[in-house]
Amino acid sequence: MRVNCVPQENSGLEFRKYVVGLKTKVPLENGKQVIPINFDNAATTPPFIAVMREINKFAPWYSSIHRGTGFKSLVSSDIYEESRREVLDFVGADPDYYTVIYVKNATEGINKLSYRLHKNLKGCMVLSTRMEHHSNDLPWRDKYCVRYVNVDRDGRISLRDLERKLKRYKGKVKLVTLAGVSNVTGYINPIHEAAKIAHKYHAKILVDGSQLVPHCPVEMKEVHRPEHIDFLVFSGHKMYAPFGIGVVIAPKKYLKRGRPEYCGGGTVKFVTKDRVVWDDVPYRDEAGTPNLMGVVALTAAIKTLKCLGMTEIFSHEKRLAEYALNRLGQIPGLKIYGDAKNINDRSGIISFNIEGVPHDIVAGILSREGGISVRNGCFCAQPYVQKLMGLSSKDVRRLIKNPALPKPGMVRISFGLYNTFFEIDELETMLGHIVQNKEEYLKEYQVQPAQSP
Q: What is the pTM of this model?
């Protein structure tokens, strides 16, 4: 596949021409049709034009893979297998040491590893962190003894606490698992420093790359270096490639032991009435007919991102974040979560609240009156959000006991490569309007001005 693109530094407007649907108008509450503003990219990004083009181009050749003898099957198999090298190259992973397993998304990928590593880690401890998405927390809880690395008052991971806990548990910790970028505060975690610390105490490291890989240059590093990453997981739908594809990158040797958590077609070499010989890695971990269309989409997205330049994308989104933090910080009564001053380690994710106005109402007004898409709630990171909002254990118990109480949460904006400074200006105007008309909105939505968590 050839992607025709010319990377342009400092130009969200230039990047926009590579993305589908940005000019598709949506209706407002007043009946007007407007070009929408999408600030919900941390959840899902729109597809690249090149992705949709490649899907349509490949569709006539779509066929079964691996065991088909027809010409289209051979073509499909070659495309599927070659894609693994594209993925490994994109994140600087050694193809002789690592393998790529295709899954539906990062959630399935982390669940897969929680099962597949169980034989290697049985009876051992896993260190997660207090900022994790539920998908990098819950899968470990029912299989391992899990402990958590603390975050500081601004919500950053404490590497000091990471090393303190690794020392305290004296070799029992065999895996450290953390987000590459927080989906709440946008903090870019020092994954290579964390890896160096983990390896010092003979633990492996897993990085949830869902918010990292689409936005930042990623290098897993050579395996002989102490800062290398052992496991990396990410999703296609967050990097301009829909169709339900996710990636697990793992050392081949750690997947050779044990049976796959899903078994069936494609996972075996030989089966008798009382014996199973599992297939080699990675085939034993891809049960059933693989998502070939998803792989085609992912490969096209990776080639487009490489062509546009991950450094240029990161720099553009970083400038957007700095601009937004400055503009939003000037709105009276708007609270930004996380450190809004020392922002060198923040990516294009910002969460906030407007004093006295529930998060769901703010998000709804932005959509209905401004055509601006955001996310509100706890973003599948409830313990972290509770910490950042200062909720006590008593507050949490009261919320669990009384489901009818208003749910705590935040409003989140998250940038993609195609977002612009003008869109941030539009957001600032709408948020200023909400603040200025707060009392009217509270009456309209029948909300009491003072609300407890």
A: 0.94
Question: Tens of pLDDT along 298-325?
Answer: 999 999 999 999 999 999 999 999 999 9
Structure tokens at 48: 């690249």
Q: Where a domain ends, among 271, 306, 341?
A: 306
| Amino acid letter for position 319 | R
Task: Name 268's bridge partners.
Answer: 278
Structural tokens at position 358: 């529930």
* Same domain assignment for residues 315 and 374: yes
Measure the CA–CA gap between 51 and 304, rounded to whole angstroms: 8
Tokens representing 351 are 């969460």
Same domain, 271 and 161: yes
The residues carrying an active-site annotation are 380
Task: State the first-to-last Cα distance of the chain, in angstroms, to the nearest integer.
Answer: 52
The DSSP output letter for 24 is -
Q: Are 280 and 396 within one domain? A: no
pLDDT tens digits for range 338-396: 999 999 999 999 999 999 999 999 999 999 999 999 999 999 999 999 999 999 999 99
In a domain, 365, yes or no: yes
Domain assignment of residue 399, given as a range: 12-47+309-444
- CA distance to 323, 377, 392, per residue, from 389 (Å): 24, 12, 9
Domain count, the chain: 2
DSSP labels for 263-314?
-STTSEEEE-SS-EEEPPTTGGGS-SS--HHHHHHHHHHHHHHHHH-HHHHH
Residue after which a domain boundary falls, among 259, 289, 306: 306
Three-class SS state of 281:
coil
Residue whose tokens read 């709440």:
184
- Domain membership of residue 450 (yes or no) is no
CATH number, domain at 177? 3.40.640.10
At residue 331, what is the residue type?
A: I
